[in-house]
Amino acid sequence: MWRCPGAEVTYIPICLLFFETMPLVSRLADKRLEFGDTVVLDSNREHTLQIRVLRTFPLSREWHRRGRNEASCNQERIKMDLTIPAALKSLSTAGSATKFLTAWWRKAKGDSRSLIGELKDNLTYLDIVADDGVELGDVIDKISVSEYKRLAKEGFNFNTLKKSKIAALASLEGTDLASWRGKETEELIESIYDKINDLKIRYPYVRANDRYRWNVRVNNIRKRIWLLLIHVRN
Prior knowledge:
234 residues
């Protein structure tokens, strides 16, 4: 028998142990559970996780308050995990990078325009995960790599987006972006899409495993997109 505030269940799958307690309690609290109800916790997995309610009892206001605080703390952890080099700060403020991408997209033509549009949409989804507390699972299927894969298959020269190599930026020294000095645009775009593709492959299957540090992965992609925009702008 496993218990949590609001419900008792006859069994709990071992993989459910990866769930954090408070988000689970919040999900149960949002439902008006009755005797015999079955609650689906995650239908995106290979094996659907579900629990059956034996009896219900009211949740206290304290549990509701703690649930809201937990959600707030999760969002703060995402923000704390993001260290922004000075060179990128102008693009890290709300909407700045998206505005730049929109302006770049409007000027571009053909295949370049398609790729920039896909990057713009991807950054928008990643931003709402990092800044607005939206669950990555809610947008992971909307994040796309299709245009990049199409162009790579056709032999598109990604260096046409910016022919010069990435410049040395003093504020990047000592950061995880320092190694990009002197590399080509194509290498940076390939890295961005490799990380996006890896996110799309892994997250649906190991989303509850904290060792993957999804918030860090999201922010690493955002920083590389910002670096690309600084490189193009310069």
